Amino acid sequence: MPKPNKNNMEKPKDFKKTFNKLLKSLKPYYVHIIVITILSILGTVFTIVGPKILGNATTELYNGIVSKIQGLGGINFTKLHKILLTILILYIVSAVFNYLEGIIMANISQKFAKDLRTKVDKKVNKLPLKYFDKKTHGEVLSLVTNDIDTISQNLNRSATELITCIVMVIGILVMMFSINFSMTIVTLVILPISLVITALIANKSQHHFVNQQERLAKVNGKVEEMLGGQNIIKSFNAEEKMMKDFEEETDSLCESAWKSNFLSGLMHPIMKLVGNLGYVVVAIMGGIYVIKGKITVGNIQSFITYTKNFTNPIANLASIMTELQGMMAATERVFEFLEEKEEESIKNKISLGEVEGNVVFKNVNFGYEEDKIIINDFSLSVSKGKKIAIVGPTGAGKTTLVKLLMRFYDTNSGDIFIDGVNIKNVDRDELRKSFGMVLQDTWLFSGTIMENLRYGKLDATDREVIEAAKLAHVHHFIQTLPDGYNMFLNEDTNNISGGQKQLLTIARAILANPKILILDEATSSVDTRTEILIQKAMDELMKNRTSFIIAHRLSTIKNADLILVLNDGDIVEQGTHEELLKKGGFYSTLYNSQFEEA
Questions:
Q1: Domains of the chain
Q2: Phi, psi (5° rounding) for residue 89?
Q3: Which candidate, 22, 42, 445, 505, has a CA 20 to 30 Å from the CA of 58?
Q4: Tell me: the pLDDT tens digits for 177-228?
């Protein structure tokens, strides 16, 4: 097993700060928590009193036997029955309290987990795209599954156990002092030793629990990649590499999990050893006191029971503290996610009203990193209804312009206007309603074809959906499927071809009927014959609509009103297809190179 990489070991997290945040987030459940605390205290108190009363029963039984031997009487069964009945009632009441406490706590932990998942889900929709550029899907998924489950499970167990253990320790000490002071002092010598061991092990294990959560998120991310990219992995015979990468991640997870679980498991036997040593000392002292008549047989039995039980809650506290480390590590990750900077809200919003489709870029500069600008002083004015094609080599900034237009990212400097309104002053939801998009990466969800198409317009009738499908030349294909428009697409939507998926996304955009269209490599996944049919439908669709067409296949944008040729974030050429060919410049080279490749 490889040695742990020190760079992967996070510094100790702020336990106190995270714990305070957790308490604040539990505020809606304070009343229930108070009830749970009361039930836990009552249930524990009744349990603590039990051994003392049971000791009285032992004393009564012992005295009765001695009296009978001495011929002075016998066992008082009436009194003995009353004592045993009292114990039975106490334990039943304690069990009822503990049962109610468990039900309420389980309810709170599950509701709290549901609240956290809801907050995470809402947060996902409010975060800017740049956050997801830095995180894998598996890391975010791990928050909703592993981390929140860890919080829920530990909250359910640790919260009630913590109260029970504290009350148990205090209650047992009170009962022990009431029986014999000197034996209690001897027992208390164990306490500092226990606390020191608990603190040392808990502090040591915290690092490993934090690292374990991080490694688990990376393993989930790797699994998600492997499941989602099976076609690519098999195509490139990359199974061995993926397995090697996965084994490295799991080895690292195994290393941190082994250390955290080892330290957690080590705590209980060590505490038990310390407790047993104290138990032996107390048993010897108790025997001496019984012989001297300083303590009754029943009391020594009760004290020995308390002595044995005294170390149990301390050992449980140690275990709970270890679990709390893992819980706090998971809680901190969730809260860090919930505190991530969201897309900036607009204070004085301006409505776009009825969008016409006039778009202006004015001195726009942008870089995904501030020190690496990829769009340089970009300016462009587009009149409504015009078809603007954006071409250029990979990395020229074509798709970036679209992301800026829809405010997936904001410009570093410069402005973008729609119908004279600066889009920085427009609510993002309203802004994006004005756009229809067909992307190179098709996105369909698990559901029927009808449901996927209707995603473009949720209140669309079946007839409207079918008309949109006809315009996209996908209606005939759908009719040939087993269930037609009711055919169910599986989770990966791999029960239809890539080209068919592209056609469906085009039909969805047609149904949305937007004022501004964005077509990012919209025909890249279809064959030439289908491309011609789609192009005709697109020409009809783009009439009287402002359209931005990003394409590598230059034969598809010959009829554009204006072609922008980008290179390194700058417009190096612009004009119609014929004008640019006549210039014999950068565009002409790109266009002719495609035919040379063909």
A1: 15-338 (1.20.1560.10), 357-434+514-547+559-598 (3.40.50.300), 446-513 (no CATH)
A2: -65, -45
A3: 42
A4: 888 888 888 878 766 776 677 677 777 776 777 788 778 878 887 887 787 7
